[in-house]
Amino acid sequence: MKLKYFFALATVLLMLTSCDDDTATLGVDMMPTADLITKNFQTYEVTTESYAVGDAVLARTSKSYLGRFTDPETGTTVKSDFLTQFHCDENYELPTNIENDECTQLDLRLLVEDFVGDSLATFKLSVYELTEQLDPNADYYTNIDPTKYYDTTAEPIATKYFTLSDRTISDSARWAKGYVNNIRVSLPPSLGTKIIADYRQHPEHFANTSTWLRSENPCSKGLYFKLESGDGAMAYIDIVQLNMFFKYYDEGYKKDTTGVSTFAATEAVVSATRFENLNLETLLDDTDATYLKSPAGIFTLAILPADKINVNDTINSAQLTLTRYNDKVDSSFKLAIPKTVLLVRLDDYLNGFFENYQVNDSKESYLATFNSSNNTYVFSNIARLVTRMAKEKQEGKASENWNKVLIIPVETTKDSNGNIVKLNHDFSMSSARLVGGSTKIKMDVIYSSFK
Hints:
Layout: H1 2-18, E1 37-52, E2 64-70, E3 77-84, E4 105-117, E5 123-129, E6 158-162, H2 171-174, E7 182-187, H3 189-201, H4 209-214, E8 223-229, E9 233-250, E10 255-265, E11 271-278, H5 281-284, E12 289-294, E13 298-303, E14 314-323, E15 340-345, H6 346-350, E16 365-371, E17 376-379, H7 383-394, E18 404-414, E19 420-425, E20 430-435, E21 441-450
Antiparallel strand pairs: 1-13, 1-21, 2-3, 2-9, 3-8, 3-11, 4-7, 4-9, 5-6, 5-8, 9-10, 12-20, 13-18, 14-17, 14-21, 15-16, 15-18, 16-17, 18-19
């Protein structure tokens, strides 16, 4: 009986072993000892340097930015203002019985989603009507020249001194539930009266956004929000609204009431933010480190040692790690650290990676997120990329930039399943000083080969 039990147990163990999902050694046990796979670990030096963006990156973002802020850590300054169009609802309608067909109040609301800096810093803003329409099919960059789109000899339709913390309202109102921080700019009500008059005469101008943009209504081509003066904060503008108020008789409630009609800047129309970076030369000349600085500031360029890679062996893994230096200055207004960065070939970036709506493919472009515990960005396996670079060099197909990649701060958009469907430049105020420059960083490579 004991013998039978032993054979039964052996049979079960054999069956369990044969059903193991780990097939990593499949076929190896049948090879001669001389053909067994060996692994080889190699570390290579990688050269990095700061890469000047030149204030010209694709300004494809749903937010607008307004302000001027000097980074206490680096002494660099970012200034920003923006141009935007307004959306008109399909089959737009106004009440038939507006009192005197007159606008009683016309204002702009710039809804502030977030900001960096001092909420009490004072700024001066001027608002101009655009005279040239922004092309919805064009790509606009962060070095856009606003003077091409408005009359520089004209007076602004409004000016506003403001702080990001609205001091014209009470503290209780500012902290009340439902309050949204905003910058309010009053426009001449006569402009709204002209819009109402045009609606009466040409309702077809209000059929949709396209017909509205082509009309000659006030503000229909869009507005330029020009920052005239101020320093100390940068506002992230989520929504811009053009609100037109009027009085009319409400037939439902049988009483006179105040109505409002809103034209909003949405993703259906063009918004273009202009950024100006100042004093970047100090960072670009720093040979002891490299930098990531957004918006539209500095990337890090890395030259991968792909010509030293042995393409006759299989590269199992190639890991590149970028380490961040801690801040030297302790400030309550210090900038955030870029959360997500993209590694992409320099040629791919120059040939329209963002313009062509490309996303990371884990072949020639990769993402890494900042690890606060280790103070690093880790690209865990760029083996496909360095293998392809090495083969291009070996086959005589290498371009001038064949082994160069950029590290770029980015913002990701995901679908309901968590898949990345869109990559844009990161336009938030962020900065990181990285180990690099005169100090080589490391790329760890694991090979496998047959003896």
